[in-house]
Amino acid sequence: IGAVHGLAPAPSMEALTLAPVPWLSTSEADAIINSGWWNQELQQSDPHDICGWYGISCNDAGSITKISHPYIKEGIQLATLKLSVFKDLERPEVWESGLDGTIPPEIGNLQKLTYLDLSWNSLHGTLPISITKLTKLEWFDISNNFINGEIPTELGYLSSLKIPHRLAEKVPPFPPSGIQMDISYNNLKGPIPNGFPASSLIGNKDVCSDNSYIQTLLHFKPCPAHCKYLVIVLPILVFLIMTFLLLVYLRHIRLAIKKKHAKKAVMTKNGDLFCIWNYDGSIAYEDIIRATEDYDMKYCIGTGAYGSVYKAQLPSGKVGALKKLHGFEAEVPAFDESFRNEVKVLSEIKHRHFVKLHGFCLHRRIMFLIFEYLEKGSLFSVLFDDVEAMELDWRKRHCTCSVIS
């Protein structure tokens, strides 16, 4: 088919292919817009084309690589720009921009950073250790701010830093350290770390040095004696304090275990046992003897085939029923195991119809049990007392029999 006169020939498929258009990461765009750093009214480019904004440069993939001196509103916090989303950022140059606040630790996530200039702002706080992760950094300038605290010795690992030209003429003529940056005129304090470029610290009045040449050339004051030994003394002091606290804790645990065991049983040298629980752990054998006046008959409230029961008012003010077994029973060796088994069973039974066992004494010459004292006595005494038996009507007797069964 021939060409139609007056019409342009149809374009080829190659001609229809569009040139690639840079795109911007949504997270980066959101971070820029939400930061409040830029006055969007002053932007002459398309407000949706952030790569065209003043102070922003992007790579071919549309990712931001450079941020330089934007129209930042006075007093804006540095942390308002979410730095962690700018994975390809290489050069943030925001000197004399009115930035306030601290340097966020997230700055260490900018692994492609080669140039960082935050000088002549109002930044304060300490230097984050995360800066040491910036292994590609070639320029680091945070001079003329209000950065405080001691100089992190970890900054010595940034061996690729270049020294600022305006400080080069003040570098001492001896082999310099590879760590060179500009953090001058801040509020840093403490000794200059070994190998650290002293020339980058001028203007920090509380920075000191033990090098007399540096003291004379850069007007640093000598370090107090305590600063020299702080690195050695402080770890030792922390170790001693931690050891002391550990010993106190172990002693507390030991006393708690000892007290717990004391409530269960007190073992004497002769293998005798005396134990009081649920009443007062400080009650001693002598208190029991004193409470019954050495088992005086006036305290006896009952006698049976295996022993006698005494009413004993303990030092705590509580009243207990002390069942003292007959002496001949205590002298029988086989009865020792039987007594222990009985105590174990009575102490483990938890039932509202059983009299509570509060303690016991196991001795070669004497054995007794301490029970909860019941004001109305035993069932035996009630049934064989004419007056009290009248109070125990048939309904109560039926209920009692049901419980016993």
Search tags:
405 residues, alpha/beta, Leucine-rich repeat, LRR (right-handed beta-alpha superhelix), Phosphorylase Kinase, domain 1, 27% helix, elongated
Task: Summarize the structure in words.
The chain is elongated. The model is unreliable at 1-23, 159-163, 165-179 and 263-272 (pLDDT under 50). It starts with 12 loop residues before the first helix and ends with a helix. It is built from ten helices and 17 strands. A seven-stranded antiparallel beta sheet has the order 11-12-16-17-15-14-13, sandwiched between helices. With 405 residues, the chain is α/β, with parallel strands linked by helices. It is an enzyme of class 2 (transferase). Its EC number is 2.7.11.1. GO terms for molecular function: ATP binding; protein serine/threonine kinase activity. The chain crosses the membrane at residues 229-250.
Radius of gyration from CA coordinates: 44 Å
Give the N-terminus to C-terminus distance in angstroms. 117 Å
Spans where pLDDT lies below 50 across 5 or more residues: 1-23, 159-163, 165-179, 263-272
Taken from the alpha-carbon principal axes, the silhouette is elongated
The main sheet orders its strands as 11-12-16-17-15-14-13
* Helix share bin: 25-40%
Order of helices and strands: HHEEEEEEEEEEHHEEHEEEHHEEHHH
Question: Sheet with the most strands?
Answer: 7 strands, antiparallel
